[in-house]
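Entry type: protein chain
Record version: 2
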Amino acid sequence: MRVIIMKILAIHAEGLPLFKAGIDIGFTATQRVSDDDKGSLIKLFNNIYLNPTAAIIGINASGKTSVLKVVLVALGILNNEPINHIGARDILGKADDSFITTIFCADRFLYKLVTKISYINDRYVISDETIFKKCIDDIKTKKTMLDFDDSMIINTRHGDEEFLSDDVSIVIAQNKKSKQYIFIEDMLSYTNINVLPASDEIPASVITFLDPTIQKLSFERQNGKELIHLKFMNQDEILLNNSRELENYLSSGTIKGIITFSKAMEVLKQGGYFVIDEVENHFNKEIVATLIRFFMDIKLNKNGAVLIFSTHYPELLDEYDRNDSIYITRNHDGIELKSLTEVLKRNDIKRSDAYQSGLLDGTTPSYKAYMQLKKSIAAYV
């Protein structure tokens, strides 16, 4: 059976309580694509390329996690998940009406899904929805790529769809007919929890990369109980009964790394989406950079997988040669998301220097807040 993997080109959302004026995030290369660039971009069709990574950066409480939640809701809707089962659905708040528009491609067609979500009786329902479709052969320029008109409508929600839950998108019919799906790994639940889940097999290469002193790490179940075998070089094997006990023997970075790189391997194999909040948690910069480089290596990332992550590390921006896959969050009476292409016009300075210097408004704590904190500490001590 031939399975078609969907790729998202853009997401627009409005009516979300935390966002000042809606949110737009694109995943295609909007800047000029040189021959050198093509080795780190995913070709979709014609001269349209997809960025294999998207970085969301901002100071604390600027809205990075909220942006990732919007992406996860859009992915979940496209993947036939009931909205009330999507883990990130709290980003919708209790707004009467919110809208999520997703542009995606599958096979030789480009689609636009417009979903209106209402909060009624303490649950979310899809109150209106429309799907548009056009052939990629009809796309002549990047500027008109995302334009759709009513003649391209292929399905509309009427509210009386038989056998369709009121929180599941009508795209499910299209997906089943065309055998379309998205493989998604959501790491948001691991942001503040660092426990290694039971696994049938942990790749030896992952373990060696993170801690070469580990000779064996495996899980098994005996009589309904979990057993963990851990052995270090030139030492006796240790038998553990609970994943949390691994914290006594392995560094937090090793545990987080095993989880992250094991999932990354599956995402790369499936050509899916890998969403990570605060990617640098428990890691040094080089390990994070390695993860990013794996996705940017199109020979390795041959199935078109996409890594979407948030970070506080401005140094990671220097891993990029392009600005169109970097987004900056700010929170001034509502979250704003801006592409780095909108706020940084110069190419003669390092991206990390521009970020840390305050050249990009809202990327460093305010001087006023700094002075207030300093005075408070001085008064206390």
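Comment: Helices lie at 64-78, 171-178, 204-210, 252-270, 285-296, 340-343, 351-356, 367-380.
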